[in-house]
Design a protein that fits this description.
This protein is of the alpha/beta class and about 700 residues long. Strand 27 (about 540-545) and strand 28 form a beta hairpin.
């Protein structure tokens, strides 16, 4: 209760009246007048009445003490044992808080929400958000339920503004052990076909057996090495980048009995394969209109080194001119087709015929080159149907189509076959969906017997136009017309010759994106996209194996002919494995070095310095024997917490209040004030009347 004044007149007027009354009272007392004391008392009461003294009483309500409880729901807490311990601890805290109505618990579950590419346990970010709307004086403490693997623990000095104890209830067992593998250093890029080196390390967290570990290394799903590694020691590994684009190296270490999880027994590294310039050998049998179309296309690709020869003077053209007077370059057949044939990624025979330039043995050498993994493209013209056709050489062993000796010379629109609409080489060619196709006509094709492989383009009456086939480890394509140059010249509007030629060449050189039967996966943030290419029937469901080991079936829907697709929103971070039929694909979602998987054993050491600095405690929920420990009781404390109580969770109770209302009592208001004044003046008059 407090006393305040609310004067009826300005304070100056009240003061003047008071001074005047004081002077009169002093004069009367000095002169010894009768009744001077009563006059002074009456004047004093009058001045007090004008000053209007009021007693005020505030109605205040005590505020609650806020205690945030941060529950760790990260992936390292996902085991059945730790989840059960967490749930039991949370239920016990709720029961204890129910006995203290002045304590307001704020329960926040913090974990990976599936949106971060680099998942980590960030409990203190959650703590800051939980108390952002209350002053620090109302915060009585914080309780963390976690395994101790927290990745945003602040420095003790930076947490000095939090003037309340931080307690941690740690899940897991104190004798936990875990074996994991990590890539220490590795290149991000590598040239296809060249040797690369990286280093990996097996790490034992906790008290492990310290025995050698067997590490299996896979590249794009294929096993390339099996190593014995000593825990804690860096070990080098050499490998060759097999293809352009993403290459996934997967390291898996054999599990050890007793380790808490096998989720981090696998590690991945993504290396981007960069192709050196592809070497292409183009041999034109004679000058013709379509020769320049091939040359311009290949020369325009900066990733291709082109070696081009045109046979201008075959052996039968002998006119007696001495060799040393000719301006022509001799065709280096032995150097190209014997000594350096394996250095070429693709050989193109453009309207080439057997005219004695190449010895017959060299055709067999080319056939072996294909069967050992090389690529051969035959762009055929009328000569392929003649007596000098290369189909009559040992090269016929790898050719998918044998000429009948006839030419089809009726105008036609090149059309995609049923397989061609699905095949990635020809799928979606611009203008193919119209009927007739929205491109120019051609006027002749080489007639062949029923070909092997896939006929992806057809001429009139379904006759083969473009045939793709595999031969041993290599690939062969036959374009059974020499009139693609009409598209290049814009005849009747032209056509997509650049796309067709380029895709055919890249398919021959085994570009993964152009495989007719392929299963691939890629990520867009946290969205996983699965693509299944096939020239057959619908492939059915794909099986998705999550990093946690769980599996789910995914329906693939047709996005376009020959391409089936599914998109899935993911929550887990790590390596996903997709299988369909006999195909498999790997893709990593999120950062490959996410902190959440670097260490998973529970620990009390990470939070102990902060708890000690704030007078909090860190204690396990399970004893070394494996038995559950009783949850400690809460200890509300008024004022600052000076000491640590290891057996209880101390909480600093706030003394903050909120004003609900004010009760006022004027001393000179109403009948009481008037009566007091009348009494004083009546006494004064009575005294003077005597």
């Amino acid at each position: 209760m407090t006393l305040q004044f609310s004067p009826f007149l300005p304070w100056i007027a009240v003061a003047l009246i008071g001074i005047a009354g004081l002077a009169l009272a002093a004069l009367g007392l000095w002169r010894g007048l009768h009744g001077a004391f009563l006059r002074a008392l009456a004047l004093l009461l009058l001045v007090l009445a004008l000053a209007n003294p009021v007693f005020l009483q505030e109605d205040r309500e005590a505020l609650s003490t806020v205690v945030p409880v941060i529950v760790d729901r990260s992936q390292s807490q996902g085991s059945e044992e730790r989840t059960a311990q967490t749930d039991a601890a949370l239920a016990g805290l709720k029961e204890r808080f129910a006995h203290y109505p002045r304590i307001e618990p704020r329960i926040v579950e913090a974990g990976d929400d599936g949106t971060s590419d680099t998942p980590s346990t960030r409990l203190f970010d959650a703590l800051t958000a939980a108390i952002a709307d209350v002053p620090r004086s109302r915060v009585g403490g914080a309780i963390l339920i976690t395994d101790g693997q927290v990745h945003d623990i602040p420095e003790t000095s930076a947490f000095s503004s939090f003037d309340a104890p931080v307690h941690a209830l740690v899940t897991g067992r104190p004798d936990e052990f875990d074996r994991r593998i990590e890539v220490v250093s590795a290149p991000r890029f590598g040239i296809v076909g060249e040797e690369q080196e990286l280093k990996f390390r097996v790490v034992d967290d906790g008290k492990g057996p310290d025995t050698p570990a067997r590490v299996t290394v896979r590249l794009n799903g294929n096993e390339i090495a099996s190593e014995i590694a000593q825990p804690g020691t860096e070990q080098p590994l050499g490998f060759t980048v097999p293809r352009g684009g993403n290459n996934i190296l997967e390291f898996s270490v054999d599990p050890v009995e007793g380790e808490i999880t096998t989720a981090n027994n696998r590690a991945v590294h993504v290396i981007e394969g960069i192709r050196e310039n592809l070497r292409v050998l183009l041999v034109s049998g004679e000058p013709h209109a379509g020769e320049r179309a091939w040359r311009n296309l290949l020369k325009s690709d900066t990733a291709i080194d082109l070696v081009h020869f045109t046979i201008l003077r075959p052996p039968e053209k002998q006119d007696g001119t001495p060799i040393n007077e000719l301006s022509l370059i001799a065709f280096p057949t032995r150097e190209l087709f014997v000594d350096k044939i394996n250095e070429f990624d693709l050989i193109i025979f453009d309207r080439y015929q057997h005219r004695g330039v190449l010895p017959i043995l060299y055709y067999d050498n080319i056939a072996q080159y294909v069967e050992n993994g090389g690529a051969l493209l035959i762009a055929a013209g009328p000569e392929h149907a003649g007596n000098d056709s290369i189909a009559g050489t040992p090269l016929a062993a790898v050719l998918p189509a044998t000429p009948t000796g006839a030419m089809n010379e009726a105008p036609f629109y090149p059309r995609l076959s049923e397989q061609g609409r699905k095949h990635p080489v020809t799928r979606g060619l611009e203008g193919a969906k119209d009927e007739p196709p929205h491109w120019g006509r051609w006027f002749r094709t080489v007639d062949v017997e029923r070909p092997e492989g896939n006929v992806v383009m057809e001429a009139n009456d379904g006759k083969p136009l473009l045939v793709l086939n595999r031969a041993g480890k290599g690939r062969v394509a036959m374009l059974l017309s020499d009139q693609g140059w009409l598209w290049a010249r814009g005849f009747e509007g032209g056509g997509p010759h650049v796309s067709l030629y380029r895709r055919t060449a890249h398919w021959l050189m085994q570009e993964p994106a152009l495989e007719e039967e392929a299963l691939t996966a890629r990520t867009f943030g946290r969205t996983l996209q699965i693509n299944r290419q096939t020239i057959g029937d619908a492939p059915g469901e794909a099986v998705l194996k999550l990093p946690s080991g769980a599996t789910q079936r995914v329906a693939l829907k047709e996005a376009e002919p020959g391409l089936f697709r599914a998109e899935i929103a993911t929550r887990e971070t790590g390596l996903y494995e997709i299988t369909n039929d006999n195909l498999s694909a790997l893709v990593h979602v999120g950062a490959v070095d996410a902190p959440e998987f670097k260490a998973t054993i529970s620990t009390t050491q990470t939070l102990k310095p902060l708890a000690e600095a704030t007078k909090g405690t860190v204690r396990r929920l399970v004893a070394e024997s494996g038995e559950a420990v009783s949850l400690p009781p809460l200890l509300p404390v008024s004022g600052q917490i000076r000491t640590v109580d290891e057996n209880r969770l101390s909480l600093r109770m706030t003394d903050e209040t909120v004003l609900r209302g004010i009760n006022s009592l004027p001393l000179f208001a109403g009948f009481a004030g008037v009566g007091l004044l009348l009494l004083a003046f009546s006494a004064m008059w009575y005294r003077e009347g005597r």
